[in-house]
């Protein structure tokens, strides 16, 4: 009887110990996996691709890249042309980081006047992202690094079009 009791006690001890080891091992494995897995903010810091073929004239598209809003606007034929425009096929696009260069607010696009208006301090940018004179924003909206691949805009990669704008002093 005593041997039977001892055998049962040994079995219960081993079963409890094995369950604890599995639980601890699983917890450590779970923690290690989530420690090594890249955060969403790190994933967003890479490249963002945007299909421009679906863009409609005078309708602002807002994408997110590296935690910042990106404004993409397909220009109409009546809108002023600018050296800051990105040309894809026969279409002209305004692409910029959607943060006011005064204090970092997000300007709203006014379809009727073709301007970006920052309500915080009255800043106004034209349809090409150039700041209006004698208003708070000190500089035009920034153009993010980009590359054009067919009808696709790749944000985060400096293509020849972006380097040309950079050399011309059109963006920081």
Please tag this protein with its features.
172 residues, alpha+beta, Rieske Iron-sulfur Protein, four-stranded antiparallel β-sheet, 26% strand
Describe the protein.
With 172 residues, the chain is of the alpha+beta class. Helix content is 28%, strand content 26%. It is built from three helices and ten strands. The strands form three sheets. The protein has a four-stranded antiparallel β-sheet with strand order 2-3-5-4, with no helix packed on it. A three-stranded antiparallel β-sheet has the order 1-10-9. The N and C termini lie far apart (86 Å). The mean pLDDT is 88.
If classified by CATH, what would the architecture of the largest domain be? Answer: 3-layer Sandwich
Helix content: 25-40%
Order of helices and strands: HHEEEEEEEEEEH
- The mean pLDDT is 88
Number of helices: 3
Question: How many domains make up the coordinates?
Answer: 2
Low-confidence stretches: none
Quote the distance from N terminus to C terminus: 86 Å
CATH level-1 class of the largest domain: Mainly Beta
Characterize the largest beta sheet: strand count, sense, and whether it forms a barrel. 4 strands, antiparallel
User: What is the approximate shape?
Assistant: elongated
The tally of strands reads: 10
Which sequence of strands runs across the widest sheet? 2-3-5-4
CATH homologous group name of the largest domain:
Rieske [2Fe-2S] iron-sulphur domain
Rg, rounded, reads 28 Å
Strand content: 25-35%
Structural class by helix and strand composition: alpha+beta
């Amino acid at each position: 009887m005593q041997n039977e009791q001892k055998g049962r006690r040994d079995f219960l001890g081993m079963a409890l110990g094995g369950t604890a080891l599995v639980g601890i091992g699983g917890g450590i494995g779970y923690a290690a996996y989530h420690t090594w897995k890249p955060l969403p903010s790190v994933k967003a810091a890479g490249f963002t691709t945007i299909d421009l073929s679906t863009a409609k004239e005078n309708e602002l598209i807002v994408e997110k890249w590296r935690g910042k809003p990106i404004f993409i606007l397909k220009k109409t034929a009546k809108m002023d042309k600018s050296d800051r425009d990105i040309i894809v096929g026969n279409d002209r696009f305004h692409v910029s980081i959607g943060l006011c260069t005064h204090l970092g607010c997000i300007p709203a696009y006014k379809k009727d006047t073709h301007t970006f208006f920052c309500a915080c301090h009255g800043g106004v940018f034209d349809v090409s992202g150039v700041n209006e004179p004698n208003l708070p924003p000190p500089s035009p909206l920034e153009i993010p690094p980009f590359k054009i691949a067919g009808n696709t805009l790749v944000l985060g990669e400096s293509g020849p079009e972006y380097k040309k704008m950079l050399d011309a002093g059109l963006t920081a």
